[in-house]
Amino acid sequence: MKREGLLKAAMVLCTLLFYLQGVIAQEKPVIGVAGISHETNTFSTQKTTIEDFDVIMGQSAEERASVFFAGANENTVSSGFIEGAEKFGLELYPSLVTGSLPKGTVTDEAFNAMMQEILSDLKEGPGLDGILLNLHGAMVVESYPDGEEEILRRVREAFGPKMPIVVTHDFHANISPETVELCNVLITYKENPHLDTRDRGLQAAGIIAGMVRGEVKPVQFMVKPPLFLNQVYLNTFANPLLPIVTASKELEKSDKILAASVAGGYQFSDVYWMGPSVVVVTDNDIGLAKTEATRLSDMLWNIRNEIVLNVPDPAEAVKMAMEHEGRPVALIDMGDNIGGGSTGDATFILEELIKQGARGWVYVLVDPEGYNLAEKAGVGNHFELAVGGKTDTLHGKPVYIKGEVRSLNVGRYLETEVRHGGGRYWDMGHTAVIHVEGSTPDEPNLLLLTTIPSSPNSIHQLISNGVYIERQKIIVAKGAIAPRAAYEPVSSLIISVDSPGVTAVNPAYFEYRNVLEVLFGMESK
Description:
This protein is of the alpha/beta class. It has 2 domains: 27-306 and 517-523, Response regulator (Rossmann fold, 3-Layer(aba) Sandwich), CATH 3.40.50; 314-497, no CATH class. It has 14 helices and 19 strands. It has helices at residues 2-26, 61-69, 77-88, 108-124, 147-159, 177-182, 197-212, 242-251, 286-301, 314-323, 348-355, 368-377, 460-463, 484-487, and strands at 30-37, 91-99, 130-134, 165-169, 185-188, 218-223, 257-263, 277-283, 329-333, 361-366, 382-387, 399-409, 412-414, 425-427, 431-436, 446-450, 474-477, 493-497, 521-523. Strands 11-12-15-16-10-17-9-18 form an 8-stranded mixed beta sheet. Strand 4 (165-169), helix 6 (177-182) and strand 5 form a beta-alpha-beta unit. It starts with a helix and ends with a strand.
């Protein structure tokens, strides 16, 4: 009996050991997640402070996780991380993942506070097997011309040279060679408008899963062609960029290539490495990375004769819209591109609409004073004020408007389709709709006065305020390429406008002092 008991105990012990080995084998790698996303317009007079970021400092790990995982059903990079964690068996440990509307230079105070929070969170958490960083690629801080490079430097110093770090960047990234050196893998959005944000998060999660399990050994190579790639031509769904982006997607069908990114750059950051970049990541084949990055860069260089600026000014654009038979015509106010760091209160196109007697236009303008006056007057009552042009002297003069307050709205709306950036929930602040004097019931001229800037990435910005898109003749969208995903399906014609402002596409409006145009290759270590 004693022998049988010992035998039984041994069998139980063996079973327990086998079970424990299985549990250990099934433990998920722990991946830290963090991010500070900002597209910095260095020509803007408005500094970006901590109050501009969507951030609550000092949250617990549980609170951070609750906020982060609440976005699982969106179409953002973070939602791609979450999907990837489930698909590839990862455990995500989120720290601060925050962003701000594009604006002027980020203050040192804001940057240092957020970085201290991120490093503290990640250090105090469980032992990390890797780190995913959701960054923009065009952040400029008062003391750091390349904000992403400084983020990576601090993270690398904190966690050492062996920590796997995979980074996502926006399509509008200005990428430095140091940034490529400091991370293991750099991936940028492929599409502009940004419809592939979730896909890029998923791709990043897949690569880091392979790294921490020893299945892949990424190496990367970057090439920067000496080009000024104007915002006007950064639509990846049209020529001349479409064939190049398609080629990058085709490359990723190879098992040897982990990622192939073509970044268009961001022309409103006057920094050393401003401009387009190509980054190719392979599985331990630096020669292949060099060859393919150079090939894609050559494709960019070969379109240089197709990217000569030829865009109408506000007067010509309004005239073209009025003469066009179809409706609506979307005028893209590129000089007041809210998504590029502008103010949202430029009046150059508004002035032309009134001057030329246009009918059936819709114009969204940031003017808290105007909204307050409309709210005080009340729905159905008279409105009279010089609106817009109040932030600075770069975006036109206030334009005198008379009309009737048509509605007052909370300014929040939902986008159910995949649009630029992947966001679903939008807020333009309290909004007043003014029926401008001199228009007709069939072709109303509508001025929407908002209290905060909101990029026109969704037509629900208008629909939620009672605007019937199909009835309007002219719609003004303060953006660049981002609004196209929303406006192309409903517009008979889209006209990009060479309007003044801090996001003017015409480089003649600006003085660049720091940009270096040079072709180079950079091998990762």
